[in-house]
């Protein structure tokens, strides 16, 4: 049993469960295009591979594992040319000496300020020449001045202790 068409002339396909038919039986019925089905796992954001699932035809040679024999590759055609490039930066030797003297200042009290001063000179040379070793020069400056300050405090402490001892001995 079917229901009569609504007043607009078009039936409601959801309520009938039947394919829709035109209200006028004299009009031709156009065939509906098939609804494309998508494979399982289809991702609409991935580009389609036009060659997926195809196999090379008969008589198609397999790809060669190595390029054909011939002349060796020439420089400038995608291969790096040996001997060019940026030369490695040279470390400033004064920065190395300054760091060593600052560290030796732990045991010998006089080399710490010398190492700190040499660290300042090395920093200036590094800025002018573009050499490496800035970290060593900074370390020499920091260690040298800290040890110099500690040595100065120790000397002042000894002088105060001697002054107190002299004042109390009379």
Structure description:
The longest helix is centred in the C-terminal third of the chain and has 36 residues, at 134-169. The protein is built from four helices and no strands. By secondary structure, the protein is mainly α. It is elongated and about 140 Å long. The protein has a domain at 93-169. Helix content is 42%, strand content 0%.
Core attributes:
170 residues; elongated; mainly alpha; 4 helices; single chain; 0% strand
Topology:
Blueprint: H1 13-16, H2 93-104, H3 111-129, H4 134-169
Strand content: under 5%
Oligomeric state as shown: single chain
Proportion in helices: 40-55%
Number of strands: 0
Q: Over all CA atoms, what is the radius of gyration?
A: 45 Å
Shape: elongated
Sheet having the most strands: none
**Average pLDDT number:** 78
C-alpha termini separation: 135 Å
Poorly predicted sequence stretches spanning 5 or more consecutive residues: none
